[in-house]
Amino acid sequence: MVENESNNRELIEDGVVQLRFSDENGAVQDLIAAEVIEVLQGLVEFTSDMAKRGLFGDGHEPEVRVRPAKEGSFILEAVIAWVAENPEAAVGTFITASAAVTQAINVGFKKIRGQEPSNFEYLDNGNVKVQWPGNKVNEVPRPVWDRLNAMKRPTRSALRKLLTPLGDEAQTLEVRDGALGDSTATVLATEPDAVATRADYREVAAEHDDVEETTRTFETEARLQSIDFRPGEKWRVETIAGSRLATMEDGEFMLDLDRGAAIHKDDIFDLEIRENRTTKNERTTTEWAVSRVIRRSRGGDDGSLPPRR
Fold first, then answer.
1. E strand or H helix at 47, and its extent?
2. How far apart are CA 109 and CA 73, in angstroms?
3. Any domain includes 308
4. I need a labelling partner for 95 at 20 to 30 A (CA). Which of 156, 229, 233, 282 fits?
């Protein structure tokens, strides 16, 4: 990307992302049709994923179109049509939407390999300037960098699809950015903006679970129901917000019960609860553990909890 580029992304024009697949001889004459479909789906999904993180500013997502195929090595050329969706940006442009996409793809490939930057800087325009070993530099919006750095499952899936032919007949993918009016040969004559190999495909195709765990402790009024005195078994805790199964960890409370203390149907307790939330592949499970129990009052038979005093 252009250094010192404004983060408002108003100065963007349409561009071409060229994807060249080749084998050990430097050419692939054809590819499995289903794999080509995967490549295009991957490019669309990756572009959409990055657009949601501000790669193109606040404008609409660009439309991904395909130029007619040319003879020779298997080359796909996708037009990243941003101006059509954001016509106010059609005048005075100095960066192509395809350049933004290829920059993000390049960072994505590096993260697939586990490469770490030698330095990075948060710029005043909201971008992150990332310097890699060998003095290679990328500049992307900070949310895009955060997304690529985390390499969540949707991002990995999009890149896997983009690299699909590398799992079969192709060995190398070269990604180039070009202006909308550039010919295939003109774009092909430039240095690749990003390169991926079969090893990169194998890495991104491997199963990786996204796991995030958070813990919080809170207090609440509750009734204790579905009581189970066996170690490790769960009790049903009924609160104003609803009911949930919870592990009982208050040893003193359990000892009181062993000594004969009774629990009645509508007894009200103050509970200290530890809540563990685990998000795996964007699906969240929640578990409760009761760490402290204080009997507060005998409840009535109307089924409601009294207000906290």
1. helix 33-52
2. 22
3. no
4. 156
